[in-house]
Design brief:
mainly alpha, 46% helix
C-alpha cells in the first residue's frame, strides 16, 4: 500500500494570515541566499629577511658589568641602562659566574687577536 503525502502550504493553525506570510517570506529569503564561490588570490611568497644581529663592543660589556658590580643593579635594569639586550647580557653573566677569574667575558673572535 502506497500512501500519498501532500504538503499543505496554507496558513498554519494558530497563526494569523499576516504572520504566515512573514514566515514563508523568511524561508524563501534563506533559499535565495545560496553560497557563492569566492575567487581566491595566490598568497604572496614570504620575503626573505636577513637575520639582524646586534654587535656589542667590549665597552658595552664593561658598561653592563659596571652597573652589575659597582652600582649593584639587578641584571635586567643593568642591561637596560647599558643598552644591551637582556638575553645577551644574561649569557654574559652566566659566563662570568662560571669563571670569574677570567674577568669580563670578551667576544670570542676578539680573544684570539
Amino acid at each position: 500500500m502506497v500512501k500519498k503525502i501532500t504538503t499543505d502550504m496554507s496558513v498554519p493553525k494558530g497563526l494569523p494570515s499576516g504572520e504566515a506570510s512573514k514566515s514563508n517570506a523568511a524561508t524563501t529569503k534563506k533559499k535565495e541566499k545560496a553560497p557563492q564561490d569566492v575567487t581566491m588570490k595566490e598568497a604572496p611568497p614570504k620575503k626573505e629577511r636577513a637575520t639582524q644581529y646586534n654587535i656589542y663592543t667590549n665597552e658595552d660589556r664593561h658598561r653592563y658589568f659596571y652597573f652589575i658590580t659597582e652600582k649593584l643593579m639587578k641584571p635586567k635594569k643593568a642591561a637596560k641602562a647599558a643598552n644591551v639586550n637582556y638575553d645577551t647580557a644574561r649569557k654574559w653573566k652566566q659566563a662570568y659566574d662560571k669563571g670569574p677569574e677570567k674577568n669580563i667575558p670578551l667576544k670570542e673572535n676578539q680573544l684570539h687577536s
